[in-house]
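Hey Z.,

So I finally got round to the 5'-deoxyadenosine thing we talked about over coffee. Here's the setup:
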Amino acid sequence: MNEEQRLQAGLIKPGIEKPANKVEKDYSKYFETVYTPPSLKEAKKRGKEEIAYHDDFRIEERFLGMGNGRKFYIRTYGCQMNEHDTEVMAGIFIGLGYEPTDTVDDADVILLNTCAIRENAENKVFGELGHLKPLKLEKPDLLIGVCGCMSQEESVVNKILKTYDQVDMIFGTHNIHRLPNILHEAYLSKEMVVEVWSKEGDIIENLPKVRHGNIKAWVNIMYGCDKFCTYCIVPYTRGKERSRRPHDIIQEVRQLAAQGYKEIMLLGQNVNAYGKDFEDIDYRLGDLMDDLRKINIPRIRFTTSHPRDFDDHLIEVLAKGGNLLDHIHLPVQSGSSDILKIMARKYTRESYLELVRKIKAAIPNVTLTTDIIVGFPNETEEQFEETMSLYKEVGFEMAYTYIYSPREGTPAAKMVDNIPMEVKKERLQRLNALVNEMSAEAMKPYKGKIVKVLVEGESKRNPEVLSGYTEKNKLVNFKAPRSVIGEIVEVKITEAKTWSLDGEYIGVVEEDKVMS
Ligand code: 5AD
Ligand code: SF4
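And the result:
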């Protein structure tokens, strides 16, 4: 093992003796404590380094009881990957003896698990740090930490160092397992503890987790992204693609099934690249889904797909149905081949439509949803119209839509852009009107039909009403005894709205059939 590998495995202490990365400004006064800031340049490098798998995580004896009498609070921004990371950090806190709390006022440690995908996600975090300042002044012993994707960005770390002295710790997405050491340093040090590895660490299998609820569970199948779409910060914040071994995933899903979970969401930034990094076995997402569908758990979903690696074998396996649901989220980003090219998506409008045609031929009842970016640098009216026409042509039932947000360090951020913000906003409105219209259209046929709903709990608007999701991820509200929370029930739809369905409860579905 070389020094970098030992460092990444946490066997030697990074930072003080040997800062791994360069920063523009001299923050050497912080070097008395852990100081390993991120470097986008380093994060961009992708080698053929072997990924080592560990199951030797343990909380060192010297840290046991660190949290006795103390409470932690984690606020999570961004995607489901971040939510799942929060479950791991909560597991580590509990292992250290901390108790959870759901108010910041009550907390002894506050973590903001951040998202870097767009500027407004980042602004929310800076705003929150501002709100926390008075609390820190009131309670000097309070520890405030920033983790997640924003911590992987050099500019963010520099900004926090310069202007947010209420922050005690910054650590990155590859440093989560180091939480006990980072907390320990933060208690000892008066300076900000910064530990952000720009290059990903190995895969650690046995990190503790405190899962949110006992109905649906997230399961990581891979980490990182090597696609480098020109607008996207994720390949820099999450590192290179690396897949968990099939056996570890299958075992985790089996355990969750045994514990009574009803739905699994398989997670990865680019799940269709699953297995590409295996050198010893030829095993891809289709193979994994084929193995998972034999497990006795009613529902399995996955996110997020990249159209480029969505292969025929996967389609063939998904067509077998059973617990593999017929809803696919397939981000297209744009309907214009020219824009797709400068986004470096590596597919065209035509090849995307061809993929959709194949999926629909194999799974006739499939529901497709997508992500779209409008106002990419220099997007013309005609190119935007191509996105509108593609949306209609595919017949998407829902989309997450965004105005392009330049991310420092990505290639697109350097592109000159001649499209005014008002035009981008107007395009977003037109697209959203279409998205609403097509969602409402897709909801109409449900009226009078019976659907299967996994009941998640009380509706957010009315505690008298329960709500849950269909296999195609449609929100359904209905009245039923609270005892059916966590069950899959049948509901007869009485009203179809744009984004949800109302219905009458029929009864619990006795045994959900799982393919053998
Ligand atoms: N600006 C706007 N939207 C973005 N996304 C990713 N990067 C950006 C960006 N720089 C969107 C994409 C992606 C979703 C998670 O966020 O649509 O699929
Ligand atoms: Fe946000 Fe992407 Fe990080 Fe998820 S992976 S938290 S979407 S930047």
